[in-house]
Amino acid sequence: MRTRGSESLIVLPLLPVFLIGVFPMLLLSLLGPAGLVILGILIASAGLTDILDANGTFTEQIIVHGYARGSERTGQRTALRSEIRFASVMIAAGVALAVTGIGGLLIS
């Protein structure tokens, strides 16, 4: 019969995920609704940064490569709209978290 190794080694690869997730859990548990406001502001800021980066990339393509053919230009516009759409969802989620946190602060 073979001896089995320790079964706790199975969860060892999950340790970095746990260590990264500890900080937000502590933030939300210690700060309560104020933590939601902070998290909402951070998510909304990430969305705004994403929009600015997408616009910068689109502008850079136009400046560096000049006027592109119709098909290339359509692809660039589609990529820009896709990135802006996703960033808008991030901004909306951030605002929703911030409003929820402010509501929680007002209630408590």
Topology:
Layout: H1 15-31, H2 33-65, H3 70-107
Helix pairs in contact: 1-2, 2-3
General description of the model:
With 108 residues, the protein is mainly α. The chain has a domain at 32-61 and 85-107. It has helices spanning 15-31, 33-65, 70-107. Helix 1 crosses helix 2 and helix 2 runs antiparallel to helix 3 (70-107). Keywords: Membrane, Transmembrane, Transmembrane helix.
Strand fraction band?
A: under 5%
Helix tally equals 3
The count of strands amounts to 0
pLDDT averaged over residues = 86
Structural class: mainly alpha
Helix content: over 70%
Along the chain, the helix and strand elements come as HHH
Residue windows where pLDDT falls under 50 for at least 5 positions: none
Integer-rounded radius of gyration: 22 Å
Q: What is the global morphology?
A: flat
Multimerization state: single chain
> Kindly, what is the distance between the CA atoms of the first and last residues, rounded to a whole number of angstroms?
61 Å
Largest sheet: none
Keywords: Membrane, Transmembrane, Transmembrane helix
Transmembrane segments: 9-28, 34-52, 86-107
